[in-house]
């Protein structure tokens, strides 16, 4: 580019950067300078950034940023027609509002630029909501993100509901220096930020001190405290991880770049709603949870080994990203790598140059979210068709060879690589446990997995959390886990000691009240509270109370999320603070009327406090919001059974079966209902169906005894 052309281009970039930088009144962080100031010295990086996903994370709407058709376009989904128009240079959406009536909303911001673009509108002063309608950039058409979802106004999943609120769910990862500014008593937002989108300082931290150092050319660069790039895995995971993960933040204020992850967030574990039992991504989990399971992470690979951080693209084309390390010469930075020719037919056994010969096709399978947005799994698994089949998970082999079986695919792999070692990714104990198997062998296998520090910490923590107090951990095992090097394991271990005598448990937990990670300190305090402890010795009591306060502060920072009130209510229950628990669970149902777990607890609370009418009213309210919720239907049946209204109970159980016929616990409840009526034939049939759905599941002893009686 000619010299004067380069200057004109840089001036345009600076103009864009300046337009996105606007320090809000009462800006949450001091020391921010804005991305435009960075571009003055780092022109190449600024140019790469200007076209990146980070730069497009959030923009003010104008002719250059709005990609969708607002020329009186429309789309109809079910019974709702939405129109997109412009007037006086502004962009408007006419659609169904929170009251079910048509309303017109001005577009405040655009979100993203590929493969789709979404739009934010302000439903009330300060409250930004994400529309369920998005623009398909490639196909150039409007589409509904959840076309099969039935979420009417008042539902938490309606686009005006709590789950589609921008500040609660999305903003901190799409903006720089973000402060949510949510006021719980008034349920209002007064959000602030230092830069509208994801700018330089979102990853490098506030830049004023660095700029002053650069101008003075003396002293030490403040940015040396946060070195990034290959070889700096821990720092990069603290910088990239918070936004590229499913996690719960502890503050309304976005932490500064590089702040320790576990001091500021609780990472979501590999639970069945988010991941398949073999570790593959299921829901939209944003990479980190998958990457932490990988051998790549264990060997020191970091984000920038593969991704160019400013433009966001890959560091090489195609298989060359992988062969920079996986090649006959190896890579001196990763000396344990097997040196071999991987980009060859002898390795991948497919036509060279085809999609099947791409490393990512077998080792990083895609899963699409928001209908058209494919994301690659960062577990980097070796294909294991039989384990995937057992887990009910996708299998890359039969995903392409749809006419073949998992057994055929496993045979092919075994013939090519008879010595293949999949021990790292073996999840057989998880799969058995998740299928309902609670046999002594499965519990012992899962416990051995937990204790083996060679396994990924996030998987061990997930196993610990799943086992809870029902595992086979000894006090010695527990002591070892509570000193584990990884805070994920330490935090999960705090909840897996409930089979140990209270005094021994408290003694094991108390040292973690001063753990380096807030995620661990909070969990420890909650566990101690749940054990019935009101006060500890003076030397520990202050740390205990601080841990409880940290827990409350973290969840009140997310008081716009119903899940936070469920957590607060759970702590109140463990401390036998019944009024506080009722208040918290009621708030959860106000924020999300479809939150079945909250209605169930409210019903249990009412019944336990001698108010059966209140319990029935809570369940009735839950069913009014979610008429086909199997959990609430099951609870109605259980309540009728306790009242010895067995025919009525069976009616509820049948409704629960119709709502979710694949749930074994529903069939077990029916079996018990028939047993209480003395109908052995019907009880045996229902129990048999439960065992078909969960072969390893143990039936309640009383039911087993009833079925074993001679006819």
Quick summary:
Helices cover 44% and strands 10% of the residues. With 711 residues, it is an alpha+beta fold. Strands 1, 2, 3, 4, 5, 6, 7 and 8 form an 8-stranded antiparallel beta sheet that branches. A two-stranded antiparallel sheet has the order 9-10.
Please, could you describe this protein's structure?
The structure is a single chain. The chain has 34 helices and 14 strands. By secondary structure, it is an alpha+beta fold. Strands 1, 2, 3, 4, 5, 6, 7 and 8 form an eight-stranded antiparallel sheet that branches. Strand 4 (102-111) and strand 5 (116-124) form a beta hairpin. Helix 24 packs across helix 25 (538-557), helix 26 packs antiparallel against helix 27 and helix 30 (630-642) runs antiparallel to helix 31 (646-659). It starts with a helix and ends with a helix. 39% of the residues are buried. Residues 1-28 have low confidence and may be disordered.
Specify the structural class: alpha+beta
Apparent shape: globular
Tell me roughly what share of residues is in helical segments: 40-55%
Distance, first to last CA: 92 Å
Mean pLDDT: 93
Biggest sheet layout: 8 strands, antiparallel
Taken as a percent bin, the fraction of beta residues is 5-15%
* Global Rg: 28 Å
Which segments are poorly predicted (pLDDT under 50) over 5 or more consecutive residues?
1-28
Number of strands: 14
Structural descriptors:
alpha+beta; 44% helix; disordered N terminus; single chain; eight-stranded antiparallel sheet; 711 residues; globular; 34 helices; two-stranded antiparallel sheet
């Amino acid at each position: 580019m000619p010299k004067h052309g380069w200057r004109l281009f840089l001036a345009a970039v600076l103009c864009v950067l300046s337009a996105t930088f606007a320090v809000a009144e009462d800006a949450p962080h001091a020391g921010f300078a804005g991305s435009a100031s960075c571009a003055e010295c780092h022109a190449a990086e600024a140019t790469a950034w200007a076209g990146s996903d980070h730069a497009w994370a959030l923009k003010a709407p104008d002719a250059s940023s709005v990609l969708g058709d607002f020329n009186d376009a429309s789309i109809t989904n079910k019974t709702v027609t939405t129109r997109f128009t412009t007037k006086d240079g502004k962009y408007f959406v006419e659609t169904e509002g929170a009251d079910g009536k048509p309303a017109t909303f001005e577009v405040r911001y655009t979100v993203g630029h590929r493969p789709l673009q979404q739009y934010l509108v302000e439903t009330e002063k300060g409250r930004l909501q994400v529309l369920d309608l998005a623009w398909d950039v490639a196909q150039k058409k409007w589409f509904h993100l959840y076309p099969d979802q039935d979420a009417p106004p008042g539902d938490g999943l309606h686009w005006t509901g709590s789950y589609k609120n921008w500040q609660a769910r999305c903003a901190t990862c799409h903006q720089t220096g973000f402060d949510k500014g949510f006021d719980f008593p008034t349920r209002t937002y007064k959000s602030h930020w230092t830069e509208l989108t994801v700018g330089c300082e979102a990853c490098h931290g506030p830049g004023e001190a660095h700029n002053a150092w650069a101008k003075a050319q003396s002293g030490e660069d403040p940015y040396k405290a946060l070195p990034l790039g290959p070889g700096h895995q821990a720092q990069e995971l603290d910088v990239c991880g918070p936004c590229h993960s499913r996690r719960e933040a502890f503050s309304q204020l976005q932490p500064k770049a590089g702040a320790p992850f576990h001091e500021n967030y609780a990472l979501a574990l590999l639970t069945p709603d988010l991941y398949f039992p073999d570790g593959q991504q299921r829901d939209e989990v944003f990479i980190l949870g998958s990457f932490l399971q990988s051998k790549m992470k264990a060997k020191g690979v970091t984000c920038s080994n593969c991704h160019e951080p400013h433009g966001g693209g890959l560091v090489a084309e195609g298989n060359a990203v992988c062969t920079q390390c996986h090649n006959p010469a190896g890579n001196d930075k990763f000396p344990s790598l097997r040196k071999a020719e991987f980009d060859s037919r002898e390795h991948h056994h497919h036509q060279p140059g085809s999609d099947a010969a791409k490393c990512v096709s077998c080792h990083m399978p895609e899963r699409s979210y928001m209908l058209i947005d494919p994301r690659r799994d960062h577990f980097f698994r070796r294909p294991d068709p039989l384990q995937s089949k057992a887990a009910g998970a996708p299998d890359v082999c039969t995903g392409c060879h749809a006419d073949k079986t998992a057994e055929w695919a496993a045979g092919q792999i075994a013939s090519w690589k008879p010595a293949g070692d999949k021990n790292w990714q073996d999840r057989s104990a998880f799969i058995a446990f998740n299928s309902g198997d609670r046999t002594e062998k499965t519990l012992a296998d899962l416990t051995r997995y937990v204790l083996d520090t060679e396994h990924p910490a996030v998987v061990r923590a997930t196993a610990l959390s799943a086992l809870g107090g029902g595992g086979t951990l000894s006090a010695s095992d527990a002591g070892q886990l509570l000193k584990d090097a990884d805070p994920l394991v330490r935090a999960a271990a705090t909840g897996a000691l409930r089979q140990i005598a209270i005094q021994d448990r408290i003694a094991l937990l108390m040292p973690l009240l001063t753990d380096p990670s807030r995620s661990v300190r909070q969990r420890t305090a909650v566990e101690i509270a749940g054990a019935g402890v009101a006060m500890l010795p003076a030397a520990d009591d202050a740390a205990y109370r601080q841990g409880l306060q940290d827990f409350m502060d973290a969840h009140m920072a997310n008081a716009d999320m119903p899940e936070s009130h469920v957590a607060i209510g759970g702590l109140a229950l463990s401390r036998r603070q019944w009024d506080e628990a009722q208040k918290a669970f009621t708030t959860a149902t106000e924020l999300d009327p479809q939150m079945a777990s909250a209605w169930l607890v409210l019903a249990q609370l009412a019944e336990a406090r001698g108010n059966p009418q209140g319990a029935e009213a809570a369940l009735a309210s839950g069913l009014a919001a979610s008429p086909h919720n199997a959990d609430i239907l099951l609870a109605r049946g259980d309540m009728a059974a306790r009242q010895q209204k067995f025919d009525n109970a069976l009616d509820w159980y049948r409704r629960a079966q119709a709502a979710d016929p694949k749930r074994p616990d529903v069939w077990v409840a029916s079996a018990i209902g028939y047993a209480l009526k003395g109908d052995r034939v019907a009880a045996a049939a229902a129990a048999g169906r439960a065992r078909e759905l969960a072969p390893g599941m143990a039936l309640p002893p009383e039911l087993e005894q009833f079925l074993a009686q001679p006819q």
